[in-house]
C-alpha cells in the first residue's frame, strides 16, 4: 500500500493545515498506551477550510445530503490534518473509532449516509488502517451552525 501522502496525491487531495481550536480545548491529545503505541484523540472537527466555516445549515432542509457528505469529507480531511500535526500520518496503524454528528431536521434519518463520506475518504487514504468502528448521530444543533462535526481516535506507532 502506498503511504497516506502518496494516496492523497493520487486522489488529487491536498492536506490542509490543522485547524486551530475554536474554543478552550486542544485539537488533539496523545496518550501512550504501551507496546510502542499511542492513542491520538482528535477533537470534533467541523467543515472549515481556509479559516472559513463551510456547509452551514440543517440537513436536509438547508443543506442537501450531497452537500452534507462534502462537509463530512472536509471534516475527515481536518481529522487527518490534526493527526499529521500531532504524530504524522505515516505512523497511523488504525482508526479505532469515529463519531459523526449531523445537524438534522426532524424526521431525517440518513445520518449514516452522510458520515459514510468521511469513512470512505479515510479508507481511501489509509487503506485497511482507515477502517473503523463508528457512530452517526443526528443532533438539533452544532457549533456555529455547521451541518457536520466528526471526532475520532487514532492508534499510532510511537
Q: Helix and strand succession?
A: HEEEEHEHEE
CATH-scheme architecture: 2-Layer Sandwich
Question: In the residues, how many domains can be counted?
Answer: 1
Top CATH class: Alpha Beta
Distance separating the two termini: 20 Å
CATH topology: the name is 60s Ribosomal Protein L30, Chain: A
Helix content: 25-40%
Radius of gyration: 15 Å
User: Using DSSP, what is the number of strands?
Assistant: 7
**Low-confidence regions:** none
Reading side by side through the largest sheet, how are the strands ordered? 1-2-7-5-6
Q: Tell me, what's the shape?
A: globular
Q: Provide the residue-averaged pLDDT.
A: 97
Question: How would you describe what is shown here?
Answer:
With 158 residues, the protein is of the alpha+beta class. It has one domain (4-14, 27-157): 60s Ribosomal Protein L30, Chain: A (2-Layer Sandwich), CATH 3.30.1330. Helix content is 28%, strand content 31%. The chain contains three helices and seven strands. It has helices at residues 4-10, 65-86, 111-126, and strands spanning 28-34, 37-45, 48-49, 52-53, 92-103, 133-139, 148-157. The protein has a five-stranded mixed beta sheet with strand order 1-2-7-5-6. The chain has a two-stranded antiparallel sheet with strand order 3-4. The longest helix is centred in the middle third of the chain and has 22 residues, at 65-86. 39% of the residues are buried. The mean pLDDT is 97.
In a few lines, what is going on in this structure?
Helix content is 28%, strand content 31%.
Amino acid at each position: 500500500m502506498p503511504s497516506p501522502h502518496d494516496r492523497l496525491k493520487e486522489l488529487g487531495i491536498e492536506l490542509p493545515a490543522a485547524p486551530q481550536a475554536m474554543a478552550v480545548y486542544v485539537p488533539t491529545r496523545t496518550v501512550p498506551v504501551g507496546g510502542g503505541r499511542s492513542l491520538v484523540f482528535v477533537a470534533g472537527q467541523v467543515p472549515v477550510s481556509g479559516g472559513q466555516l463551510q456547509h452551514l445549515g440543517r440537513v436536509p432542509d438547508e443543506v442537501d445530503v450531497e452537500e452534507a457528505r462534502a462537509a463530512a469529507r472536509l471534516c475527515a480531511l481536518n481529522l487527518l490534518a490534526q493527526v499529521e500535526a500531532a504524530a504524522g500520518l505515516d505512523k497511523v496503524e488504525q482508526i479505532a473509532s469515529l463519531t459523526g454528528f449531523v445537524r438534522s431536521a426532524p424526521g431525517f434519518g440518513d445520518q449514516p449516509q452522510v458520515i459514510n463520506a468521511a469513512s470512505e475518504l479515510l479508507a481511501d487514504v489509509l487503506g485497511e488502517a482507515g477502517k473503523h468502528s463508528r457512530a452517526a448521530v443526528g443532533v438539533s444543533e452544532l457549533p456555529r451552525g455547521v451541518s457536520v462535526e466528526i471526532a475520532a481516535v487514532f492508534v499510532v506507532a510511537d
